[in-house]
């Protein structure tokens, strides 16, 4: 089912045209789905710091990842099925016009990790949507293998659903990993209460009985974390953060920390906070290190989860929670023509929600 009027048209896309150069808004043809593809009309695409970091990468790094320019940025996309290739059987419940969110990580579906439901570890997933292949910062995007690439939204508004594909699903992955270490007597600390941290706070409240403490230097973000359900918020990260947390929770041990920053200061704080047997979910990619011998620096019998990304089950999980009203997705909307300003505000920390471009 192809819309010939749309097929013959052009569209504006935000594309990385060459390495080490700023992305550009340019006109390209509307993509025509191959026999094995589905085209989605984009309702909203979330922005991510990694989009801008990618533009600064040298060509050699892109080549090692299998990425080839030009390609359209944007890996947090949702919209409506618009056209279906001749050889595609849509998954049950999906038709042309259905609202869907696009799975962010690419995966093959055949390797040992995919068979276990660990698509995040798929060795074939380095070339993904917005990472070396066209993403959602355009009016249309095509996807392969719709059974693996699309998650139905039902009544959930696709305009707000894009951030669930990465920020929401990644936070769900972190919370799912540490949930077995948390019970009604537990305290968990979330370091960084921005986009991912806000989702992490909500998911901890939805999926665990633990007390949640949010740590962030921004008063506005701390207030948002409290609105999302955090029991306490603490200004940080500095040498007094641990004492501030202790003044709130007393002598109760910290059974888990979710670090969505990943700087040397936040990793050090997380290691200092954790009680014996505690769990650290290291999500942030700020490039920090723990500059001391591991013995004595990490909790006795503790665990560290280091990862980025999510599995398909994580996306399905956050979609279900959002559809049920148990997960709030606050967004700041921008048009595609305003994408540069959206990134500027995101980098400056001026946004109240996730930046979403609505083509």
Question: Could you characterize the architecture of this molecule?
Answer:
It is a single chain. This protein is an alpha/beta fold. It contains 13 helices and 18 strands. Strand 1 and strand 2 form a beta hairpin. Residues 1-6 have low confidence and may be disordered.
Short characterization:
The chain has 359 residues and is an alpha/beta fold.
If you compute it from the alpha carbons, what radius of gyration comes out, rounded to the nearest whole angstrom?
Answer: 21 Å
Low-confidence stretches: 1-6
Helix content: 25-40%
How would you sum up the major sheet? 7 strands, mixed
Structural category is alpha/beta
Q: Shape from CA axes?
A: globular
Tally of separate helices? 13
User: Would you report the number of β strands?
Assistant: 18
Distance linking N and C termini:
22 Å
Average of the residue pLDDT scores: 91
Strand content: 25-35%
Secondary structure layout plus pairing:
Elements: H1 4-7, E1 10-16, E2 24-29, E3 37-46, H2 49-55, H3 59-65, E4 71-72, E5 76-84, E6 99-102, H4 112-115, E7 128-129, E8 132-133, E9 140-144, H5 146-149, E10 150-152, H6 158-161, H7 167-178, E11 187-191, H8 195-207, E12 211-215, H9 219-227, E13 232-234, H10 241-249, E14 254-259, H11 264-273, E15 274-282, E16 303-306, H12 312-323, E17 331-334, H13 339-348, E18 354-357
Parallel strand pairs: 7-8, 11-12, 11-14, 12-13, 14-15, 15-16, 17-18
Antiparallel strand pairs: 1-2, 1-4, 3-5, 3-9, 3-18, 5-6, 6-10
Helix pairs in contact: 7-8, 7-12
């Amino acid at each position: 089912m192809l819309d010939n009027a749309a097929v013959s048209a052009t569209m504006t896309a935000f594309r990385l045209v060459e390495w080490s150069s700023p992305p550009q808004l340019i006109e390209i043809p509307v993509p025509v789905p191959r026999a094995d593809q589905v085209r989605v009309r984009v309702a909203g695409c979330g922005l991510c710091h990694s989009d801008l970091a990618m533009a600064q990468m040298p060509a050699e790094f892109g080549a090692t990842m299998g990425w080839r320019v030009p390609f359209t940025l944007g890996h947090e996309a949702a919209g409506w099925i618009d056209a279906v290739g001749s050889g595609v059987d849509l998954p049950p419940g999906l038709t042309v016009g259905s609202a869907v969110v696009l799975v962010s990580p690419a995966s093959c579906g055949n390797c040992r990790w995919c068979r276990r439901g660990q698509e995040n570890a798929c060795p074939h997933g380095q070339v993904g949507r917005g990472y070396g292949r066209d993403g959602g910062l355009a009016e249309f995007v095509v996807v392969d293998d719709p059974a693996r690439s699309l998650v139905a939204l039902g009544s959930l508004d696709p305009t707000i659903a894009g951030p669930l594909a990465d920020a929401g699903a990644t936070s769900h992955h972190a919370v799912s990993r540490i949930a077995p270490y948390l019970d009604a007597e537990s305290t968990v600390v979330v370091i960084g209460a921005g986009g991912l941290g806000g989702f992490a706070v909500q998911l901890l409240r939805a999926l665990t009985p633990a007390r949640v403490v949010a740590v962030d230097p921004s008063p506005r973000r701390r207030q948002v974390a409290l609105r999302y359900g955090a029991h306490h918020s603490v200004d940080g990260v500095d040498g007094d953060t641990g004492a501030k947390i202790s003044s709130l929770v007393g002598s109760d041990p910290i059974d888990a920390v979710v670090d969505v920053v990943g700087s040397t200061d936040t990793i050090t704080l997380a290691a200092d906070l954790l009680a014996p047997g505690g769990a650290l979910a290291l999500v942030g990619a700020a490039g920090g290190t723990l500059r001391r011998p591991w013995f004595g620096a990490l909790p006795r019998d503790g665990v560290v989860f280091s990862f980025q990304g999510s599995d398909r089950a994580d996306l399905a999980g956050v979609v279900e929670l959002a559809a049920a009203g148990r997960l709030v997705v606050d967004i700041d909307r921008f048009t595609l023509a305003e994408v540069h300003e959206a990134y500027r505000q995101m980098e400056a920390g001026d946004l109240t929600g996730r930046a979403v471009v609505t083509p």
